[in-house]
Amino acid sequence: MKKMDSGVTAAIGFQAAGGSAGIKKGNVKDMALLYSIVPCVAAGTFTTNIVKAAPVKWDQHIVYDCEAAQAVVCNSGVANACTGEEGYRCCRETAKMAAEVLKIPEDSVLVASTGVIGQQIPMDKIIEGVKMLAPLLSNSREAASLAAQAIMTTDTRQKEVAVSVEIGGKTVTVGGMCKGSGMIHPNMCTMLSFLTTDADISKEMLQEALSEVVKDTYNMVSVDGDTSTNDTVLLLANGLAGNPVINKKDGDYQKFLEALYEVNTILAKKIAGDGEGATALFEVKITGAQSREQAAALAKSVITSNLTKAAIFGHDANWGRILCAMGYSGAKFDPEKVDLFFESAAGRLQIIENGVAVDYSEEEATAILSEAEVTAIADLKQGKAEATAWGCDLTYDYVKINADYRS
Asked: Where is the site labelled Involved in the stabilization of negative charge on the oxyanion by the formation of the oxyanion hole (predicted)?
C-alpha cells in the first residue's frame, strides 16, 4: 500500500471544485462539488441521531434506493437540519440544478450540508454556487484541496488523504476528504466524509466494506459527546481502475478493505486531533481484552471522559480518572489486573501495574503528556482482542468556540 499526497481526485475519473457562494460571512469557501466522469456504485453510513437533517434523508434514498450516483454537492455554514419539508425540497432543487449543469440524472446527485441547525438553506446562493463550481471541476491536486477547504466549519485545517494498492494486477486508488471538529461522538459525528475509489466492486461489497470499516474508525472518535444531525459518510466507486470485479469476500476484497481502513483511520485521527479548541490528539488503546466489543466499550468510555480529557490538557498523569472511566463503561474486567502506560514522542512510561500505581516520575509523565499526540494504553491481560479510540483534550477554547458559534 502506498500513501499519496492527494485527496478525492486521486482515483481515476474523479473531479472536484471548491469556492465561495456567499453562504458564510466574508469571502470564504463554503461550497464544494465532487463529480465522477462515469456513474458510480455508492455506499453510505449515516447519523444514528433520531433527528436527521434533510440531506441525510435525501442521501439515504439515493444510496439505498437508486441505481447509481455520480456527484456530490456540499455546502458549509448552514446544516439544513430541522427545516421540515422545505429543507428536503431544497435538497431536490440542489440535485436538479447539479443534474442540469452536469447532464446527469437527478437521482444520481448526493447532497450534504454542515453548519448551524434550524436555518433554512439560502437556495439562491446554492443554485448560483452549483453553476459557479461546475466549470471549475478538475482532477488536479489543487481542486481536491479547495474542495476540502470548502466543507470546513470550525475546523482549523483541511483533512485529506489517498492511498493506492495493487488488486488483480491493477493499481486501485482510494481517496477521501472529511470535515469535523465539534459535535463529535461515537456512532458518527458532526462530520462529513467523502470517499472515492476507482475500484471495480459490487454495490453490495462496497457497502459491506464501508460498514465494516466505519465501526473501527469514525465510530471510535469523540470530541464532546454530542452526536450530530448531519453525520454522513459517502463512498463512490466508478470501476475505472479495471481490476477484476470484487463481488465476494476474497483476497481482492481484503486488499480493498485494508486500503479503505487506512484512509478512514487517517481521516478519523485528523478529526480527533482537530477537535474544537484542542491542543492534543488523545488516543486510547485497550489491549488484552476478551473481545473487540469489550475493548471498544472501554476505549470509548475513556475517550469521552471529560475529567480525563481535562487532565490531558493539564498534562496531568491523573490515572485514577482513566480507571474510573473504564469502571463505568458497562464492560466487565478485573481492575486488579490492569496495567496502564502513557506514550508519546517523548517516551513511554508505565503508570499502574495490576491496578496499583508504580513508582514513576511525575516530571517524565508530564513531559510525555505535553506532546501534540498522546496515547494511553491499558492492558487487561484477559485475552488477545484490542480496540483503539481517538479524541482530544478539553480546553478553555472549546467553551469559547461553542458559546458564540452562531455569532
From this structure: 114-115
Whether the CB-CB separation of 211 and 45 falls below 8 Å is answered with yes
pLDDT digits (tens, 9 = 90+) for 165-210: 999 999 999 999 999 866 555 554 458 999 999 999 999 999 999 9
Give the domain CATH number at 329. Answer: 3.10.20.340
pTM of the model: 0.89
What is the predicted pLDDT for the residue at 104? Answer: 98
What is the tally of structural domains in the chain? 2
Strand-by-strand arrangement of the 347-353 sheet:
356-357, 347-353, 339-344, 373-379, 281-289, 385-392
Residue 262 shares a structural domain with residue 287: no
E strand or H helix that includes residue 293: helix 292-303
Q: Are 389 and 221 in contact (CB under 8 A)?
A: yes
CA distance 22 to 77: 10
Over residues 283-305, mean pLDDT: 96
C-alpha cell at 117: 441547525
Q: Which residues are annotated as a binding site for substrate?
A: 153, 179, 190, 276, 402, 407
* pLDDT tens-digit series, residues 78-89: 999 999 999 999
Q: Domain range for residue 309? A: 281-403
* Distance, CA of 130 to CA of 139 (rounded, Å): 17
CA distance 311 to 181: 20
Q: Would you list which residues are annotated within the binding site? A: 153, 179, 190, 276, 402, 407
Q: Are residues 28 and 149 in the same domain?
A: yes
Residues 334-361: tens digit of each pLDDT: 999 999 999 999 999 999 999 999 999 9
Helices and strands, counts by H and E, the chain: 11, 15
Quick one: CA dihedral 175, 15, 33, 67, positive or negative?
A: negative
Active site residues: 190
Give the residue from 230, 248, 273 where a domain finishes: 273
